[in-house]
Amino acid sequence: MTDIRAGTENGIRRCDQCGRPLPALHKNEYTPARARLVADLGVCMCTHGDTDGVEVPDRAPSLL
Fold first, then answer.
1. Which pLDDT does position 4 carry in this prediction?
2. What pTM was computed for the model?
3. Which tens digits make up the pLDDT trace of 11-20?
4. How far apart are the C-alpha atoms of 3 and 57, rounded to whole Å?
5. What's the 3-state SS for 1-64?
6. Is the dihedral of CA 35, 26, 51, 1 positive or negative?
7. Any idea where the domains of the chain sit in the sequence?
8. Degrees, nearest 5: CA angle 30-64-47
C-alpha cells in the first residue's frame, strides 16, 4: 500500500487527504465498524494516482 492509504483506525483503511474510509478491497473489510463510518462520512473519492493494481470499471453493470 502507498503512504496515502496507510491511515488505519481499528483496521479500517482511511484516506490521509479526506479522512474517509477507502473502498474495500476484500470482503473481510466489510465490518460493522466500517459500515458505521461509511454511513457517517461516506467513502473516499479522492484521486490518489496509484491504484495498487485495482482495476476500476468505467461503468457499473446495470442491475435491471
1. 40
2. 0.55
3. 788 888 888 9
4. 24
5. CCHHHCEEECCEEECCCCCCECCCCCHHHCCHHHHHHHHHHCCCCCCCCCCCCCCCCCCCCCCC
6. positive
7. 3-41
8. 45
Model confidence pLDDT, tens digit, residues 19-54: 899 888 888 888 898 899 999 999 888 876 655 666
Distance of CA 12 to the CA centre of its chain: 9
Phi, psi angles (nearest 5°) of residue 7: -70, 115
Q: Which long-range contacts (CB under 8 A, 24 or more apart) does 5-12 make?
A: 5/48, 5/52, 12/37
Give CA–CA dist 58/47, Å, rounded. Answer: 15
